[in-house]
Amino acid sequence: MSPRTGRLCLGWQYATPFPEPGPPPRRPTPPAQERLNPDWATAQRREESLLNRPLKAAFCVAVALGLTSLALGVAGVLNVLVAGLGVICCLLIAAVSGYAIWQGERALRSRLASEQARVGKLRAAQESRLFAWQAEHADRMREWQELRVAYEHQKRWYAVCAPDGVQRVDVAGGTLSGWSAMLTTAGANLLAAGGEITVLDLTEGSVALDLIGFARASDIDPLVWVLPDDLPRLDLGTGLGRDALADLLAQVASVTDEQASARDLSLDTSVLGWVIDVLAENPQRQATVAAVAAGLRALAQAGDPRDDVAAGLISAGQADRLTAMFGRAATERVVLERAWILEAQLRKLAPIGSALAPLPRSALRVVALGRRVGAVGSRVLSTYLTVALTHLLRDTEPGQRWRHTLFVLGADKLRGDVLDRLSDACERSATGLVLAYRGISPHVRQRLGRGNAAVAFMRLGNAEEAKAASEQIGTEHRFVLSQLTETIGVSVTDTTSSAYTSTTGSADSTSASWSESEGLSRSTGHGHSGSLLLPAQTSVSRSVQTGDSRSTSESESVSTSVSTSTAWGMTTSKAAGDSESLARAMQRSREFLVEQHELQQLPASAMIITYAGPAGRQVVMADTNPGIGGLGGATALTLEEYRSQPVAGPAKREPPPGRDDAPRPVNWRRDRPPPNLGPPPERLDWRKRRS
């Protein structure tokens, strides 16, 4: 499946839709074959012999007496009549006893034949039942093999994407390495789908390095500004109108206040508007931040205005007009004090836009703060970048949602009202917004999940913040961590020896490298200058090339490229290569409930995402590791999309034609044994029959 524009994928969800089928079904053991019991037959013959013994004796005696009578009659010892009568009587007795003996033998043979027939019927029923068992076992074996194949070849990592209709994602907590993983995973999919990304890295760290590496591996030339060194080549905020520029600078000047009051903002905006009006009298020169700062110095009568006139920031006439604009009365003194405060804050932004030059558009733009920025300067630059982007977004025509996505990393440096204005501007312009906070401060807690937005919680070191996050998620949810998530989370740290490299410098600018102990690096590009314009509504589709000839979809190619071009991907590939079980990611590490201490010990790339869906509130456990996309068990489909596919598992077998009403085969596991037919029928007794 190709990466789809219009959605944000934050990570991967570990799941096994097809459970392990267990051991194969046991082959049915044929029962002992029914046969005629020889002991029973012997007992029947013995009983028959005992019953026939008197008859046999009578038969023998009758025969002997008859022969004796016949011999005596022939010898003349007995009268012929007496001898004949004796012979006749003996013959009758012998005939009756012989018939009884024959009848008993016939009854015995009949019983043996009946028992043999009964045993034959039982043997035939056993064979039929055994054949049914074997046929059912064959069907069960085929089904087990299909389930086994489906279990072994199923995907185990599924994309976790923001649902349709969500235009904002808040990421609370987490380490820099976890943010790097999240940014690379989300940005790689957006870039591969032809989207455009703007990253404001306010963390003073190198969070977007892996994403920049992926972009370069995908033939995308990113634009990188490292502030404050690249302020002269930053065009963000230049070219704004009078009101927009005054509002921008007023917001920046009040950055030290936790919550700017409407009165102070109105006064600052009015003072800045007066200065900009004076500067606008020269149509050949546009009002810049440096010129506004020079005008504020002239207005506050701070320093010698001739220095600014000599530098070309303002003219002598403009300096005179600003100097004479207010006197020293009590009311005017308040204005002059505000002008002095404004100038003190805006002085840090004076170099902005002083050395601009055109630069080709890029799908990836990164503006980062260097470590040489002080505490106040960091907040000033952060607010300036955010408010300037807000004004640009207001003038942007709405397009496809998430096609242009803005990532603000370290958004806890911004005031709540600044964040609200940025969110509103992104919503109106259909720009995707991802806000990442180092902690859950009070003004952040009030805005988590505001509106139709997804919220993601990562590792939270502060106990109170972790408790607040667990209460918002719900402590009743139970999640399962994959062994791969645990293993990679242990091996990844937040330390790095790499840094951003500015792409907007000039050949004459100096280079400085930054390591973990030295600071932020910026090297130079030849003859380039910055251009941080918002994307137009037309997009440029980018293709991602990989060397994996087995890949059959574009999503597989993107994942492979992420795996080979980012530090996370290389770490994951190495860990997966060390163990076949990790490569297949079949093991589950542990289960846990959403509790305070569990949130504090989550792996670096683990993230709990919660959002309001059509079926109610959803809570998902995700891994933001971009290297997972390079594993064979990963897919760009979400778990719901995978389950909704028409053929996602073993095929269901249809009954044979014409066998719809066929009886169900006997289940050898659960059906009862054949019924006991009882003892053989009772033998016939000739004496009872005669009576």
Fold and architecture overview:
With 691 residues, the protein is an alpha/beta fold. It has three domains: 38-153; 157-238 and 353-546 and 553-643, Rossmann fold (3-Layer(aba) Sandwich); 242-349, no CATH class. 45% of the residues lie in helices and 12% in strands. The protein has helices at 38-75, 80-153, 176-192, 209-217, 242-253, 262-279, 289-300, 305-310, 316-323, 330-346, 375-394, 416-428, 442-445, 463-473, 483-491, 554-565, 567-578, 580-584, 596-600, 639-643, 686-690, and strands spanning 9-14, 157-161, 168-172, 196-201, 223-227, 364-369, 404-409, 432-437, 453-457, 478-482, 588-593, 606-613, 616-623, 634-638. The strands form three sheets. The chain has a nine-stranded mixed β-sheet with strand order 5-6-4-7-8-3-9-12-13, sandwiched between helices. Helix 12 links the parallel strand 7 and strand 8.
Number of strands: 14
Any idea how many domains? 3
The separation of the N and C termini measures 93 Å
**Unreliable sequence segments:** 506-530, 535-560, 578-586, 658-678, 683-691
Q: Tell me the overall shape.
A: rod-shaped
Q: What is the CA-atom radius of gyration, in angstroms?
A: 48 Å
Which features would summarize this protein structure in a list?
single chain; 691 residues; alpha/beta; Rossmann fold; nine-stranded mixed sheet
